[in-house]
């Protein structure tokens, strides 16, 4: 039986992987010291530390040594294994750690089993609310916690609830869970719904109790079939256990929950459009005020909360608002889940306490870029957010800080970009998305977005003039001020933030007709460097438009008129003989 | 099913989650399923039956490391709990033969050590 486990991994991506060599050497030395039957050495695929040379982790002590050399093995065996001491100069203390509050059960419990949710403390918050707290104290607790809406705008949750609670109506109020997640590259809500559906249901029941609603809806997009299925199952289980329906947990509180499927329109994540959609009308926003907490679904007071906000509620009640407000920064409390994607090594969901820096998230937790190229920028907040350049990666993430930089927290999408990403192409993509998703009801968004996209296309095709940048700024301003809903008001953020931080790159496109990242096809040409070409012909066989004639005798060259600029030749050439510029 | 009272709920919450000490959890959210987690889950349940192993195969949601799906968490007495990533049938066999039966961690497949 082993008493210790030693994990080894070479985290230096720039050289050939030395894990195997090191592993063998470590085993040899353990054998020499006759420790090989007590200590097991394991090569791992990921050790949670990046760019720190050879990393050794010792369990159960959880000691991590970085930049370890072959000569250190003897020290580790003598000092750490035999004397039980830590070697300080090799010791690594992790800078950033994930903190799992919302994702507490994701990956831990069976999402289709209510027993497992209850077994991990589930629905005890609901019990506490029903038997001890009552609506007023409950809202007080949420106020102490300081939680703000996780859907994007960051409105204090307790205020929404309090407004709706204070409304006196005889014929009902509503609660809605907004699970219409639509930002490209963001999927936190889906993962929570699929991994821990009961926590969201419990949060929604508590919200309903707080405001005195007797009917609630889940608004989920139909593109999330598994999430819908799991919520459906979870609702049924909750009914079976008396956690939904009449006299919940023996109290006088009644609540019915239902699911409404969205057809996947981005604008339906906006609360007034979402309400229209549930009412069976076309999903278009209408002016606020009146806010939904006063006049919402069917004209009744309605609270609409995001999935992540609701998943936070049970744990706030269980552990207390004070506990929650102890996490995070002065204005932004608790944790935030981010979906980190793009050119990052470890893409996936991470949850951190508010106030962690972008660098901690992207480099320390997610391992930096996959290509090993430097990070150029990080995009947060999806189509409503902005691009944050690498110089500002040490910014602490919270609602205010991101807004100051011209981005937003948004629902939690985070896209990492490296030097191959073009800062004209990125806003073009996001704006294209917003133009496609604009409902067309108000002119600033419908026409402004379309016009801006036209300017961006013009610039990326090499036909831009310096005055275009001024036009982009002017239209942005008009859209921000005059659009009816959040979609139009924020659609120009990607353009404005790239203009703010990467204006030189726009100018390069306009004045020098050059795309530094090599992304804008019209501005890129491919050529074969004759001196480097080994005449293997792989580019010619791979060219989809037969634009590379030639043979082994005369060599190969690209016919520019025929070239579709797909970049296949550049990718397949093993000798780097294709020049892209 | 009888409706729960507050007392029942309290009692239920104290029941231990893990019916057996040794278990394997397969992450079965969209990301895992897209990467082939369902096959891995079925493979585990069949193999465990075939070999008559005393280990429980369970389901769970996504643990977050989407780049390494399918993710499989293994907890066996005497070994630290670990998450194996990019699990396919080959890795699954190694997990059963090496980790579960011989009580040795499998090389090159561990993405996270929990404790």
Separation, N- and C-terminal Cα atoms of chain B: 37 Å
- Overall structural class of chain A, as computed from helix and strand content, comes to alpha/beta
Strand content of chain A: 5-15%
CATH homolog superfamily of chain B: Glutaredoxin
Instruction: Compute the separation of the termini of chain A in Å.
Output: 60 Å
Compute the number of strand runs of chain B: 5
Strand-pairing-aware structural class of chain B? alpha+beta
Q: What does the main sheet of chain B amount to?
A: 5 strands, mixed
β content of chain B, as a range? Answer: 15-25%
**What is the level-2 CATH architecture name of chain B?**
3-Layer(aba) Sandwich
Helix content class of chain B: 25-40%
Order of SSEs of chain B: HEHHEEEHE
Radius of gyration of chain A: 28 Å
The pLDDT mean of chain B sits at 90
**How many strands in all of chain A?**
17
Separate helix tally of chain B: 4
User: Most extensive chain contact?
Assistant: A-B, 59 and 49 residues
The neighbouring-strand order within the major sheet of chain A is 10-9-13-11-12
Structure description:
- The complex is a heterodimer of chains A (581) and B (115).
- Chain A has helices at 19-32, 72-82, 114-119, 124-145, 157-166, 188-195, 197-211, 225-240, 271-278, 307-319, 321-325, 358-365, 399-404, 425-437, 443-460, 467-482, 486-490, 493-501, 503-511, 538-542, 568-572, and strands spanning 4-10, 39-43, 54-59, 63-65, 174-179, 215-221, 256-262, 302-306, 335-342, 348-353, 375-380, 386-389, 413-418, 526-528, 550-551, 555-556, 578-580.
- By secondary structure, chain A is an alpha/beta fold.
- Chain A has five domains: 4-90, 3-Layer(aba) Sandwich (Glutaredoxin); 114-324, 3-Layer(aba) Sandwich (Rossmann fold), CATH 3.40.50.11540; 335-418, Ubiquitin-like (UB roll), CATH 3.10.20; 425-511, de novo design (two linked rop proteins) (Up-down Bundle), CATH 1.20.1440; 525-580, Alpha-Beta Plaits, CATH 3.30.70.20.
- The radius of gyration of chain A is 28 Å and the shape is flat.
- Chain A starts with a strand and ends with a strand.
- In chain A, 51% of the residues are buried.
- The model of chain A has no long low-confidence stretch (mean pLDDT 92).
- Chain B has 115 residues and is α+β, with helices and mostly antiparallel strands.
- Chain B has four helices and five strands; from the N terminus they run H-E-H-H-E-E-E-H-E.
- Chains A and B meet through strand 2, helix 3, helix 4, helix 6 and helix 8 of A and helix 1, helix 2, strand 2 and strand 5 of B.
């Amino acid at each position: 039986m082993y008493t210790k486990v030693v994990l080894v991994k070479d985290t230096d991506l720039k050289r050939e992987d030395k894990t195997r060599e090191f592993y063998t050497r470590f085993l040899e030395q353990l054998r020499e010291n006759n420790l090989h039957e007590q200590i097991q050495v394991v090569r791992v695929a990921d050790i949670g530390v990046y760019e720190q040379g050879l990393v050794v982790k010792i369990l159960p002590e959880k000691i991590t040594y970085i930049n370890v050399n072959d000569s250190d093995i003897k020290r580790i065996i003598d000092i750490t294994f035999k004397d039980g001491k830590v070697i300080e100069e090799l010791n690594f203390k992790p800078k950033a750690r994930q903190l799992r509050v919302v994702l507490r059960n994701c990956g831990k419990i069976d999402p289709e089993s209510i027993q497992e949710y209850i077994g991990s403390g589930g629905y005890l918050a609901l019990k506490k609310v029903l038997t001890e707290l009552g609506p007023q104290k409950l809202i007080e607790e949420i106020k102490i916690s300081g939680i703000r809406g996780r859907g994007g705008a960051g409105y204090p949750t307790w205020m929404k609830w309090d407004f709706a609670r204070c409304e006196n109506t005889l014929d009902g109020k509503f609660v809605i869970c907004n699970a219409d997640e639509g930002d490209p590259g963001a999927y936190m809500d889906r993962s929570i719904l699929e991994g821990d559906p009961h926590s969201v249901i419990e949060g929604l029941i508590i919200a309903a109790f707080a405001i005195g609603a007797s009917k609630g809806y889940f608004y989920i997009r139909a593109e999330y079939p598994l999430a819908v299925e799991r919520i459906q199952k979870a609702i049924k289980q909750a009914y079976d256990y008396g956690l939904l329906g009449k006299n919940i947990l023996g109290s006088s509180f009644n609540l019915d929950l239902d699911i409404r499927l969205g057809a996947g329109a981005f604008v339906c994540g906006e609360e007034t459009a979402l309400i229209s959609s549930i009412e069976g009308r076309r999903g278009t926003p209408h002016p606020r005020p009146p806010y939904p907490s006063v006049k919402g679904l069917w004209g009744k007071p309605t609270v609409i909360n995001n999935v992540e906000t609701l998943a936070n509620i049970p744990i706030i009640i269980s552990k207390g608002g004070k506990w929650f407000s102890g996490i995070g920064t002065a204005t932004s409390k608790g944790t935030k889940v981010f979906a980190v994607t793009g050119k990052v090594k470890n893409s996936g969901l991470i949850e951190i306490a508010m106030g962690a820096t972008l660098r901690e998230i992207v480099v320390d937790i997610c391992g930096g870029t996959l290509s090993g190229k430097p990070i150029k920028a990080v995009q947060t907040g999806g189509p409503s957010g902005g691009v944050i350049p690498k110089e500002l990666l040490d910014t602490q993430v919270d609602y205010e800080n991101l807004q100051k930089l011209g981005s937003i927290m948004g629902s939690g999408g985070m896209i990492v970009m490296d030097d191959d990403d073009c800062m004209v192409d990125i806003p073009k993509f996001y704006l294209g998305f917003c133009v496609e998703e604009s409902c067309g009801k108000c002119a600033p968004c419908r026409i402004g977005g379309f016009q801006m996209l036209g300017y961006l296309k013009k610039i990326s095709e090499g036909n831009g003039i310096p005055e275009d940048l001024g036009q982009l700024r002017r239209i942005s301003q008009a859209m921000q001020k005059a659009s009816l809903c959040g979609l139009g008001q924020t659609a120009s953020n990607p353009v404005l933030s790239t203009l703010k931080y990467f204006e030189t790159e726009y100018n390069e496109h306009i004045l020098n007709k050059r795309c530094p990242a090599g992304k804008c096809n019209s501005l890129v040409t491919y050529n074969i460097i004759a001196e480097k070409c080994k005449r293997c012909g792989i580019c010619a066989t791979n060219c989809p438009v037969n634009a590379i004639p030639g043979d082994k005798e005369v060599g190969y060259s690209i016919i520019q008129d025929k070239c579709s600029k797909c970049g296949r030749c550049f990718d397949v050439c093993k000798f780097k003989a294709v020049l892209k510029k | 099913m009888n409706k729960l009272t507050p007392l029942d709920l309290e009692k239920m919450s104290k029941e231990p989650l893990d019916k057996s000490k040794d278990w394997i959890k397969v992450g079965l959210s969209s990301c895992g399923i897209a990467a082939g987690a369902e096959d891995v889950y079925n493979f585990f349940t069949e193999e465990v039956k075939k070999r008559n192993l005393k280990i429980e195969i369970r389901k769970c949601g996504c643990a977050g490391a989407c780049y390494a799906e399918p993710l499989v968490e293994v907890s066996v007495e005497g070994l630290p709990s670990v998450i194996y990533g990019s699990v396919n049938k080959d890795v699954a066999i190694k997990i059963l033969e090496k980790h579960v039966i011989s009580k040795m961690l499998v090389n090159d497949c561990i993405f996270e050590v929990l404790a």
